[in-house]
Amino acid sequence: MLNVGSQVGRTVRSRKVKLDGVQKAHASRVVRRGAEGDWLFSPAGTEVVGSDGSVSMQPADGVQLFPTLALPESGGRFVAWCWATAPEPPSDHWLSPWISVDVAAARDEPFSFLDLELDLWVSADDAGIVDVDELDAAEADGLIDVAAAQVARDAADELHRALCPGYQEAFDGLGWRLLAEVRGRPADEP
């Protein structure tokens, strides 16, 4: 979430830290720095390595946004992905371009965020907020306090309202344009 030290073209590590401390990281390339934040690209097949020893492969090309500012209403934070269609879709939502969002808290490490469990997804066909049960369980287990959990819920609602009316225009369409550019495709074909 910090916008420090990034240079366009540089390879960096993007890190997601769960409330229980488990981490997942993958290599990305900085493709843009702007007032809105930093955009990173990683291609389909990128290895995602977990601190628990797990290894998975990213199913599709994607650009990841680490926003500079908190959300205006809730004060919450997030990290978002604009995803291309997966070459070998592991599930139905990978059959067409879509956006995934992690409701998050900032960390002091560049390109790193604390995942507050709530996730959003939005595509041409549908949208939703998922993992509400995971946030509830984390709150019950004392991994997140009541106030922070409420900010996460409010942020998820705010993002859902903002993204649903036209996901192709999300983030002023910049994510889709960057994804198309990096992939060498026309701007209307992420």
Automatic annotation (TrEMBL):
Task: Give all residue intervals belonging to the DUF402 domain.
Answer: 107-161
Q: Which residues form a coiled coil?
A: none
Q: Which InterPro entries match?
A: DUF402 (IPR007295), FomD-like_sf (IPR035930)
List the protein's name: DUF402 domain-containing protein
Upper lineage is: Bacteria, Bacillati, Actinomycetota, Actinomycetes, Micrococcales
